[in-house]
Design a protein that fits this description.
alpha/beta, 8 strands, 49% helix, single chain
Length: 317
């Protein structure tokens, strides 16, 4: 089996190390607080006394810490940096596309191949067949680390050599998730105000998630094509729905900040003449919208279903 060093043993890092051990990989671990490694050591992992030891111990070095700044503080030392030569550095911390590009340059200058990754899961979901990890960077780096990555997620999606792609899609996904979460939290207040069970509301949303996903997919297709006519749900219709949500908040005396903010954006789109266009026309009034790209990159299109990599079933071209 493969060999990897895991730097960072927070909730996610520990879950990654456990998944690697579960598949029989040899794992060296390091964390500032060494006590966090105790359960992993009992499971057969090797505790590194230093970051330099951890880097030197394995051909694949996986980093999962709070951000890229912490990554550099750990690796950019006289003891550690030289040990990176000939290794693959897999960054699974959260960052921006520019940070990924900077980190790739830094790693290459030290003789390491670099792969940027984004985990689309919580720690409890690591290692499942339906868990996804986005990866981007040098093809050679992906090929070397793929056998280990497939222990962490059943669906490892390689986006190509443009190293910022994984973090870009990660941030885009987080934007969607956080926006949906805010809507859910306000919806929970609506349920509470009317004596409905919030857990039942959550279960209902989970049950209809495929239908909602189909709606989102349609909006993505509209934006990609740049054709907003003949809407399934117009900007004006959506604004009317939001007006009812704000009205209910006033009547029920609950916080109305989330729907009021959303309604303001839809009203701005209507004032700009987009009221009878598809709801996706809202993108036209977002900051920077005049210069937003109409078309996804080929790598990003693959993620949305044209070409999907499920590593255990074969890698896409």
């Amino acid at each position: 089996m493969g060999e990897a060093s895991m730097i960072g043993l927070g909730a996610m890092g520990s879950a990654l190390a456990r998944a690697l051990r579960r598949d029989g990989h040899r794992v060296t671990v390091w964390n500032r607080t060494s006590a966090k490694a105790d359960p992993l050591v009992r499971d057969g992992a090797v505790l590194a006394p230093s970051v330099a030891f951890a880097v030197a111990a394995s051909p694949i070095v996986i980093v999962c810490v709070s951000d890229y700044t912490v990554t550099h503080s750990l690796l950019e030392t006289q003891e550690v940096a030289p040990a990176l030569a000939g290794r693959v550095l897999v960054q699974l911390s959260t960052g921006t596309p520019q940070e990924a590009r900077d980190c790739e340059v830094w790693a290459r200058e030290r003789g390491a191949d670099y792969l940027d990754g984004a985990i689309q899961a919580t720690p409890s979901q690591v290692g499942r067949p339906d868990t996804t990890i986005f990866a981007s960077g040098a093809d050679a780096a992906f090929r070397r680390s793929e056998p280990l990555l497939t222990s962490l997620a059943g669906n490892v999606t390689y986006l190509g050599e443009s190293v910022g792609s994984a973090s870009a899609l990660d941030l885009a996904t987080l934007s969607y998730v956080f926006g949906a979460a805010l809507g859910f939290f306000h919806g929970a207040r609506i349920c509470e105000s009317e004596g409905l069970r919030v857990d039942a509301f959550g279960a209902m949303l989970a049950a209809i998630a495929p239908v909602i996903g189909e709606m989102i997919k349609h909006q993505g297709e509209v934006i990609h094509a740049g054709v907003y006519e003949s809407p399934q749900a117009s900007v004006s219709t959506c604004a009317g729905g939001l007006e009812r949500i704000v009205q209910h908040a006033r009547e029920a005396q609950i916080n109305a900040e989330v729907p009021t903010f959303a309604l303001g954006l839809f009203r701005q789109a209507m004032a700009s003449g987009h009221g009878q266009e598809e709801a996706a026309a809202l993108i036209k009034v977002l900051v920077g919208a005049p210069n937003h790209p109409r078309h996804l990159t080929a790598a990003a299109v693959r993620v949305f279903g044209i070409q999907r990599l499920a590593s255990r079933r074969g890698r896409c071209a």
